[in-house]
Every structure is written in structure tokens, then in C-alpha cells.
Amino acid sequence: MLSNYKSGICTFLALFSIISPIFATISQNRKQIESNHQTIVVDPSKQGAFKSIQSAIDSVPSNNQKWTTIDIKQGVYKERVKIPRDKQFIYLKGAGKENTLIVYNAEGGIDSSATFTSEADNTLAKDITFTNSYNSPPNRNGNPIARALAARIQGDKSGFYRCGFFSVQDTLWDDHGRHFFKSCTIQGAVDFIFGAGQSQYQSCTISIAAPNGGYITAQARGVPEDSSGFVFNSCNIVGRGRVYLGRPWRDYARVLFYNTSMSNVVSPQGWFASTVSGKEELSEYGCSGPGAKRSKRVRWEKKLSEREVNQLTSISFIDNNQSWVNQASQILGV
Predict the structure, then answer these.
(1) CB 322 within 8 A of CB 316
(2) Residue 191 falls in the annotated catalytic set
(3) 3-18 pLDDT, tens per residue?
(4) pTM higher than 0.85
(5) For residue 55, which phi and psi values (nearest 5 degrees)?
């Protein structure tokens, strides 16, 4: 009995010696984040707070190295919002994507119509909806379908959690940089997730509003050495109309739908290209639902090996050492 007791104590001490440094590191990281952090408030109904989101962003010093939470209270904010390149480490915290809405009405060029633009690295947002109301809600305001961006994301290491992006054409310009979208809703019809971002979409709802047909993605990977690509992991494609999963914007466009539920809004052909170069890497793996049937898929759809799928769906695709994604999770509390 005594020997068993001593053995148990030794085992516990050995485990404790392994686990203790891990908890110490986590605690140290949290303390470092908390000590290097400030919060400002946007609330039009109260004195002592910023009345607009843009004025709060403008108050952050240029070349900021301290995480700044901009706590945006419930409301509809009818403004165009931009985080410039020199204002990193900004976290936009909403009160729920049904409660905190940033809405602007603009159409035209993809360089000029976005409701929200983020140029800076190290940008986070949670519980906010970004809407371009020029065509949204669809078919309710009589405007012709036009390029009308809800958001343009340019900065590296940017994360969006429980956010909404609503428009019809060119909703989300996933422009460039490494991005992580989790539990978001993205609505549109034509090329509504597009660009050359290196991004993972995890557990997101892809909402189709395409009575006249459309395309979910238009990815812009231009050369084989380009690391960009869109990976949809455990997402849900729903809505009305009929869409293709995507069409290439550049020759080496790379998109993977993995373990995704597809309703019958997805075209049986799956993908579209006016001409096929053979360089496209548009693929599906392990998907389900009536829209995932393979019998009529285009022949040139890329067939990935299990190894290639694992490489793309691993978090290392956007974060080699899992440092910025883990830090983002700590800051957001997710």
C-alpha cells in the first residue's frame, strides 16, 4: 500500500512538473495582454463616449502597439468605417451581430464602395454586422445589381468572429493577408467572397440571395508560388436561387469546401469557368447535402489527396506557429 501511495505521489509530481509551466505561460500571456490593453466606448446615447465608430478609430495613435478594444454599443451606425494601415491592434467589439450594425449605401468600384475597410495588420472584430444597403436586403429597394462591398479586408493576421457581411455583388473582398472567419454569416449572389486572401472560414453560414444565379467565390491566386486560397471548413450553404461554388478570378485560383453542408442552391456542375486552363485548384472534400452530389460535377474540378486536404484545413495554413490565432482567441474570449 505504501509503495503504491509513493508511486502515485511521484506520478502526480511528474505530471505537475510538466503541466505547471504550461499554465504559468498561459497566465503570463493573459497578464501581458491585460497590461498592454485599453478600452474606449462608442455609444451615441451617452455622454463621455464617442458618438461614431470612425471617431473612436481616429483617436487611436498612429503606429499603435497596444491592443485597443473599441466597445461598440447596440445600435445602427450609418457610417463608412476605415481602419488605416498605421493603426494596428484594434479590436471592434459589438453587442451581437443582430444588435450592432454598421450600414452604408454605396455602389461602384470595388476600391470605393466598401462599408468597412481594414488596411491594418492585427485587426479583430466580434459580434458586428457590416452591410452595404445599396442592394441589401435583396430585391427590396429597386436598385440595379451593382458592385457594392460590405467589407474589404487587406491587413495580415485579421480575425472575425460571429460577424455578418451583407450585400449582393462583391460582398466581402478578402483582399490579401492571412484571415480567420469563425461563425460568421456572409450573404450575397455574385462573386460575393472574392480576392487573394489566405483565409479560413470555419463554421460559417454562406447565405445565397441569387434568384438570377451567381457565384460564391472568385479567388485571385495568380501564380503557383502564391500562398493564398480560401478554405471553407464545416460551413453551411443555404438560401434561395442557384449558384456555382465559384469561378476563378486568376489562373491559379484555389478554393476548398471541406466537410460543408450544401443545400440544393448549389448548381449540380459545382464550378464555372468560361475557359479552363487546367491550373485552377477548385475542390471539395467530404461535403454533404443535396448540393454536394458529385454525379454532374465539372470534370476539371481538382481532386485533392488526403495529405493536401490536411495541409489546407490545418490552422497552420494561416498561422504556422499558431501564435496570432491563439492570441486572438484569448483577446476575444472564444
Answers:
(1) yes
(2) yes
(3) 554 555 555 445 445 4
(4) yes
(5) -65, -35
